[in-house]
C-alpha cells in the first residue's frame, strides 16, 4: 500500500493542484481540459486567507487537495472552493479523508463552512451529504455563472 499523507500545501503545489482541478472539471463535464479553468484555479489558489491541504505520497506531486477560503472578518464562514482527487483514487475513501481533515483544520477558525456544487454532480453531493453537509439553497458559481446548489455545514 502506498503511504499517503494529508499536509498543508505550499505555492510550489499550485501548478499540480491547478492541473488536478482542470482534469477533474473536464472529466466531470465530459470536455477537454480548458486553459481558462486552469487560470481560474491558479487565481483561487493565490487567494488569501486560505487553507490548502494536499494528499500526497512523499516526494511526489499531490494526488488530491482541498482549497478553502477562510473568513477574513465578519461572519465566521469559510467557503470550500475545491476538492479534487486523481481519478485513480476516486472511490477509495481519500476524498472523504480530505474532507474530514479540512473540517478539522477549520475548527476554531470558522463556525460554518459552505460550498457550491452542480445539481447534476450526484457523486459529489453524496460525499457531502455523507459527511454532514446540508442543502442550503440555490446559488451560482461566481466564476462561470452556472447554477449550483449551496451546501452548508456547521462546525
UniProtKB/TrEMBL annotation:
Keywords associated with the record: Acyltransferase, Ribonucleoprotein, Ribosomal protein, Transferase
Domain of life: Bacteria
CDD domains: NAT_SF
GO terms for MF: acyltransferase activity, transferring groups other than amino-acyl groups
Domain N-acetyltransferase: 4-155
Gene3D superfamilies assigned to the protein according to its UniProt record, in alphabetical order: 3.40.630.30
Annotated GO CC locations: ribosome
Name recorded for this polypeptide: Ribosomal protein S18 acetylase RimI
Organism in which the protein naturally occurs: Nocardiopsis flavescens
Amino acid at each position: 500500500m502506498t503511504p499517503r499523507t494529508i499536509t498543508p500545501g505550499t505555492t510550489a503545489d499550485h501548478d499540480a493542484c491547478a492541473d488536478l482541478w482542470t482534469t477533474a472539471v473536464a472529466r466531470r463535464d465530459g470536455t477537454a481540459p480548458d486553459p481558462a479553468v486552469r487560470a481560474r484555479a491558479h487565481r483561487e489558489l493565490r487567494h488569501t486567507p486560505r487553507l490548502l491541504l494536499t494528499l500526497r505520497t512523499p516526494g511526489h506531486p499531490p494526488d488530491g487537495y482541498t482549497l478553502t477560503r477562510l473568513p477574513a472578518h465578519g461572519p465566521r464562514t469559510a467557503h470550500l472552493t475545491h476538492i479534487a482527487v486523481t481519478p485513480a483514487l476516486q472511490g477509495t475513501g481519500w476524498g472523504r479523508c480530505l474532507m474530514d481533515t479540512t473540517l478539522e483544520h477549520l475548527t476554531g477558525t470558522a463556525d460554518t463552512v459552505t460550498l457550491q456544487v452542480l445539481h447534476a454532480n450526484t457523486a459529489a453531493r453524496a460525499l457531502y451529504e455523507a459527511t454532514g453537509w446540508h442543502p442550503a439553497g440555490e446559488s451560482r458559481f461566481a466564476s462561470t455563472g452556472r447554477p449550483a446548489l449551496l451546501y452548508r455545514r456547521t462546525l
